[in-house]
């Protein structure tokens, strides 16, 4: 590294890193590491591991990625570890059953997609990307036994999810017990100074500190971030719960999903999922506490902000206009796709149509949408799963709150 690197002072850095964080363990060690960094003009190694088990990221994933970006902007080395080897094991964190491993092909495809999306938050050119197969894949059985000897079964069973499963008679496979040790070796291999993770990762991160000591390294500081609550206001954000806002969602979908969150988590989204300043956060808190201000107005600002972050300011304004047109003015989108039936086709079953236009993945899912009252044609709700759609004239099919398609006449 050439020239003198300018790091923000310690107090300024700590204010940034503590924002939204649940725990910094131990905080005094982070201060010491920052002092050493500034004194020796040496960036810290900031580690974030990700097992690419799913190809799509959502705002829940962005919480810890944004924290990594904050360290990066303060001059430290962001290291993103792609868990191509540990994905073959399956992280048991927060799970009550064994997670099935992925194939190498799935892992490689997901890893590529993961980084493309993470690059919307991180500085792509300054982020170091490594795969943990580089060191874990070279370990032989003797190395694994030696590593296992450095940790006891009793300590491993202190982990909450293992304790619950053990007491409940739910099987715990040996490979799951090896997972935290494998993740700890990631910290050893890159000489991690700070490791970031969600609160569900606390145990794994602490194991990393212990194994680093065993290898004669200064232990990493761990910083945990809360799990972002999904749009339902109850469960953590997850595609499994369909309560997510995807980083790759189109502007209209992103805006609409953001507006669907309950009022009591608006502040959390501002704090954890945006980069608004701490001064702005204070004003947002005051506005939310002010009974004279409608929380919906603050939520609309949040929705615009999130769309702007992942798309553009112009996209955010268009998404808001489109939303108002559909929901406030009871209109339909200006530009909606068109479905043209095959030549000679005069009718189709409603469920088959919903699948054909990709508004549902299966007839079973389409059936649920109809039975839940989420399907209408030309503004009239259709709740008959055996309904036959004819193509004698142009129609508008609406599924859910934001999916529209024009059905052409044949």
Question: Any descriptors?
Answer:
Tyrosyl-Transfer RNA Synthetase, Rossmann fold, 410 residues, 6-stranded mixed sheet, globular, alpha/beta, single chain, 5-stranded mixed sheet
What can you tell me about this protein's structure?
The chain is of the alpha/beta class and 410 residues long. It is globular. The model has no long low-confidence stretch (mean pLDDT 90). It has three domains: 216 residues, Rossmann fold, CATH 3.40.50.620; 90 residues, Orthogonal Bundle (Tyrosyl-Transfer RNA Synthetase), CATH 1.10.240; 70 residues, RNA-binding S4 domain (Structural Genomics Hypothetical 15.5 Kd Protein In mrcA-pckA Intergenic Region, Chain A), CATH 3.10.290.10. Helices cover 45% and strands 13% of the residues.
Q: Which assembly state applies to the chains in this document?
A: single chain
What's the CATH H-level homologous superfamily of the largest domain? HUPs
Strand order of the largest sheet: 1-6-5-2-3-4
Portion of residues in beta strands equals 5-15%
Concise structural overview:
The chain contains 17 helices and 13 strands. With 410 residues, the chain is of the alpha/beta class.
Give the topology, please.
Layout: H1 10-18, E1 23-25, H2 27-39, E2 45-50, H3 59-73, E3 77-82, H4 104-118, E4 127-131, H5 133-136, H6 141-148, H7 153-156, H8 160-167, H9 174-190, E5 194-198, H10 202-214, E6 221-225, H11 251-259, H12 266-273, H13 278-289, H14 295-310, H15 313-328, E7 338-339, E8 347-349, H16 350-356, H17 363-371, E9 375-377, E10 380-381, E11 388-390, E12 395-399, E13 403-407
Parallel strand pairs: 2-3, 2-5, 3-4, 5-6, 7-13
Antiparallel strand pairs: 1-6, 8-11, 9-10, 9-12, 12-13
Helix pairs in contact: 9-10, 11-14, 11-15, 12-14, 14-15, 16-17
């Amino acid at each position: 590294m050439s020239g003198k690197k300018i790091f923000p002072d310690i107090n300024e850095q700590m204010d940034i890193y503590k924002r939204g964080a649940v725990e910094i363990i131990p905080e005094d060690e982070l201060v010491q590491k920052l002092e050493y960094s500034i004194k020796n003009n040496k960036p810290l190694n900031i580690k974030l591991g990700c097992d690419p088990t799913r190809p799509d990221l959502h705002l829940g994933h962005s919480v810890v990625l944004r924290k990594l970006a904050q360290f990066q902007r303060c001059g430290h080395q962001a290291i993103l570890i792609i868990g191509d080897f540990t994905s073959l094991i399956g992280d048991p964190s927060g799970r009550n059953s064994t997670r099935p491993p992925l194939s190498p092909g799935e892992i490689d495809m997901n890893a590529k997609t993961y980084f493309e999306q993470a690059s919307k938050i991180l500085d792509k050119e300054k982020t170091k990307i490594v795969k943990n197969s580089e060191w874990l894949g070279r370990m032989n059985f003797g190395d694994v036994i030696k590593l296992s000897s450095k940790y006891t079964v009793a300590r491993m069973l202190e982990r909450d999810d293992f304790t619950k499963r053990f007491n409940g008679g739910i099987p715990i496979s040996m490979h799951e017990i090896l997972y935290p040790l494998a993740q700890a070796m990631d910290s050893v291999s890159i000489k991690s100074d700070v490791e970031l993770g969600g609160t569900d990762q606390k145990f794994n991160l602490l194991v990393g500190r212990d194994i680093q000591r065993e290898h004669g390294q200064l232990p990493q500081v761990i910083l945990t971030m809360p799990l972002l609550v999904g749009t339902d206001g109850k469960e953590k954000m997850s595609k499994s719960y369909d309560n997510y806002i995807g980083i790759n969602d189109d502007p209209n979908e992103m805006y609409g999903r953001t507006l669907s969150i309950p009022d009591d988590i608006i502040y959390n989204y501002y704090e954890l999922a945006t980069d608004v300043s701490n001064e702005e956060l204070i004003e947002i808190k005051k506005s939310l506490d002010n009974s004279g201000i409608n929380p919906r107005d603050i939520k609309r600002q949040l929705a615009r902000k999130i769309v702007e972050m992942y798309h553009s300011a112009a996209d955010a304004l268009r998404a808001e206009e489109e939303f108002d047109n559909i929901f406030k003015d009871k209109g339909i989108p200006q530009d909606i796709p068109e479905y043209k039936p095959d030549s000679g086709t005069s009718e189709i079953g409603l469920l088959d149509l919903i699948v054909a236009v990709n508004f549902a993945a299966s007839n079973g899912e389409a059936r649920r949408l109809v039975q839940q009252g989420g399907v209408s044609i030309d503004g009239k709700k259709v709740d008959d799963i055996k309904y036959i759609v004819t193509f004698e004239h142009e129609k508008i099919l609406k599924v859910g709150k934001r999916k529209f398609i024009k059905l052409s006449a044949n």
